[in-house]
Amino acid sequence: MTLKTTKCKLTIVFLVSLFTALMALDQLQAASGKHKPWTDPELAKKEDPDFCIQGEYGIAKCSAKCSAKCSAKCSAKCSAKCNAKCSAKCDSPFGVQVVALGDGQFDAYVLEGGLPGTGWVRGKGRTMLKGTRDGDKITFKPFSKDKKPANAKYSGIIQKGKFLLTIEDGNIIQLPRIERKSPTLAAKPPKGAVVLFDGNSAEHWINGKVENGHLRATGCTTKQQFADYSLHLEFRTPYMPAARGQGRGNSGVYHSGRWETQVLDSFALEGWDNECGGIYSVSPPKLNMCLPPLAWQTYDVDFTAAKFDTDGKRIAWPRIKVRLNGVYVHGSPDDDGLELPKDYTTSAPITSPLTNPLGPIFLQDHTNPVVYRNIWVVTPLPDKPKPAPVSFGMGNVDLIEEKTIEGRKVLRYEHDSHPDWGYENNQRDYFNVVPAVDVKKKCRCVLFSTVPEKVVTRP
């Protein structure tokens, strides 16, 4: 045995031992409750005081500026004179998102312009603070990840349900804790929708499991396949303060079994393609609209399947529009959506070459207790096939419309670029009949110049 072989074996033994130790540590932490996932918000409130601290602080979007007479549509009451420390608008110039990390530790992100969806967009100021519980208050201080001098513009304290944000001029802005809800939450399926889950059974799913009226993320697949569709789906990630990254409330919704819209507790993070709202390995969301863990959230998706020619060759990639909690994070109402220029994304259940437009909806199992509810799909009505050119009189013309008058079918045809009316298969019946000659085709066609009101038969 050579020295090199011995070193290689020792390295393998060390790595195996390290992995075993890490697994044992993880199991020990889970047993102690450190990595416990909470799936019930009431239980989380009762057992972990940090749960009621994490969340959003600010003012939900208002439809009008604060004035001497406050807008009835504002989400928060304003006095006759707006608080000078806040803003002359109902919209706060700041929003703060607070993430619980376990054991009284927190990250906070100060967002200039308001919360995502109410003013803050990519490119505006976003400052990270580190917070620690100290009795009945949490104190936040500037923090720098890369050992550079921390941005000292902001600091803050959470006390009595408010984030007291101190800005660089010394002023203190009071931001109340709020709980936003998606405007499409509990949306009812329209007439003709395919209801995939209504809380009662998983009959429409392969490997679907229902628990407490919710569909679990068990790697379940719809029995039905779809091409173009609009999907409404509601999901809830667990509260896992000690977990990090992809181990925190992970699942995913795969469209056509190939392209994933990520589900993850990535509340307050930067919003990458592998975080909530992202199209995994294709595109990050325009905005991180993820809400805090254990809040019900919504995906509303318009999916346009890939297109193929008569020979089966793909002529267009699929496209997708995605709203996360009511806000467009991919595409917009005025465009065709984001192109999905690959056969599948990471960890897709279907990885075969893309050869047809049909596919199922798949809910990924990533071992985290993510749950779903209120899932339904609307598919477009099938287009009526256009009839082939038919013979009318002595000419071939295209059928545009048909009616039934006194039991007789009346057809409207396109003849020499002009629509006219005529009776079906009977050149002897007429109403204001004009014998017409198609100069291009040199054929005789009996057509109607007006819409007939009754049947008139020539002797």
Describe the structure concisely for a colleague.
By secondary structure, the chain is mainly beta.
Low-confidence stretches: 18-32, 62-89, 389-397, 415-459
The CATH topology of the largest domain is given as Jelly Rolls
Decide which structural class fits the backbone: mainly beta
Overall pLDDT: 80
By CATH reckoning, the class of the largest domain would read Mainly Beta
Taken from the alpha-carbon principal axes, the silhouette is elongated
Write up this protein.
The protein is built from two helices and 30 strands. It is mainly beta. The chain has three domains: 41-178, Beta Barrel (Lipocalin); 194-378, Exo-inulinase, domain 1 (Jelly Rolls), CATH 2.60.120; 390-448, no CATH class. Strands 9, 11, 12, 14, 17, 20, 21, 22 and 24 form a nine-stranded antiparallel β-sheet that branches. A hairpin with a 2-residue loop joins β27 (408-415) and β28. The model is unreliable at 18-32, 62-89, 389-397 and 415-459 (pLDDT under 50).
